[in-house]
């Protein structure tokens, strides 16, 4: 039985942290494992960081650039070299590859999202291994994924993967950074992300971007889509095969029992909200507990400037995000009808709009601890 696999490999695994040189042995081992998986019939997507890291080494820069334009320029240099290396290694094993560079905008627009999904399917049908990275050269701040952990989780949802492997320079997630806290406790299995409330995950390696915090977020996105997620060592690619065979290696996150569908995944994780609706306690409870549609009566405040069908955050009275959704009214209209009963809307607006502000089919609960 074939399984669709998304394998993300970070800069910290692809390059030597001290010299910045490519970790050729690690890359070669990863390519070999991917080719073996392909020969076993598994569709595989490789999400590869490293453009900035490899570019810095090529241009003899001692640290990651901070200026956006310089970072974009360095990534453009590194991405070309990275793909040259991958093509040399994969070609030596007769495995065709493709470069897929994405920006968040490619996944925000519904039509572009569906088009990207179709393209990946065509690449799988051709027996190709797509190699994905953020299009650092053109991605601008408000439309960046920011880190490839998040990107890999969104791609895993896009291709409806069965597994997401996050390869990094430690063997698993710990209760804290094992580099700075030797007594940090290893975490081998996560059934519910609330178990990680006390985990310290903020620091990252010299060349990494996201640290463990972004890997935990990636695991939340992927497991919410029903995708089993594993954090494991990048330099031991053979672990992937052993994990698929059932060995308890790395940190394994169980998929949620009731994954959300593709449209709701798109609403919850691919779209960037244009505004915020704060609800009263009763409306917040109704949204979280019963998955009802949102009516104007439950809205206390409307923030932002957006049109109908925009994506918005839905928050409780403390301003904590509890859900996201697509609105049936603009922000200007909502300013007029918030707190009002549905039967009052026609008189207020002068026309009979939608019965709901957000229909339940366009509303996704995102609160990590919905019962709170
Ligand atoms: N709780 C933790 N468990 C394990 N590693 C952690 C933790 N908190 C921080 N880290 C750090 O996160 C780093 C991996 O993240 P990052 O540097 O972004 O690597 P990558 O390039 O693979 O994404 C590890 O090298 C480790 O130093
Ligand atoms: N698009 C960037 C990826 C940044 C990133 O997330 O890096 P990492 O934390 O090493 O996975 C690059 O290729 O350098």
Q: Describe it for me?
A:
This protein has 372 residues and is an alpha/beta fold. The chain has two domains: 5-264, Acetylglutamate kinase-like (Carbamate kinase, 3-Layer(aba) Sandwich); 273-365, PUA domain (Archaeosine Trna-guanine Transglycosylase, Chain: A, domain 4), CATH 2.30.130.10. Helix content is 37%, strand content 18%. It has helices at 11-14, 24-39, 51-58, 68-91, 104-108, 110-125, 148-158, 211-224, 238-244, 262-270, 281-290, 331-337, 345-349, and strands spanning 5-9, 44-48, 97-102, 129-134, 163-168, 173-174, 186-187, 189-190, 228-233, 251-253, 275-279, 299-304, 311-315, 321-326, 363-365. It is found in: Cytoplasm. Catalyzes the transfer of a phosphate group to glutamate to form L-glutamate 5-phosphate.
Features:
about 375 residues; alpha/beta; Carbamate kinase; Archaeosine Trna-guanine Transglycosylase, Chain: A, domain 4; 2 domains; eight-stranded mixed sheet; five-stranded mixed sheet; 13 helices; about 35% helix; elongated; binds adenosine-5'-diphosphate; binds ligand VHF
Rounded average pLDDT: 92
Total strands: 15
Please indicate the percent range of residues in DSSP E strands (runs of 2 or more).
Answer: 15-25%
Secondary-structure arrangement, i.e. CATH architecture of the largest domain: 3-Layer(aba) Sandwich
Shape: elongated
SSE sequence, one letter per element: EHHEHHEHHEHEEEEHEHEHEHEEEHHE
Q: Largest beta sheet, briefly?
A: 8 strands, mixed
Helix content: 25-40%
Task: Give the number of helices.
Answer: 13
Strand order of the largest sheet: 3-4-2-1-5-9-10-8
Structural class: alpha/beta
Distance between the termini: 40 Å
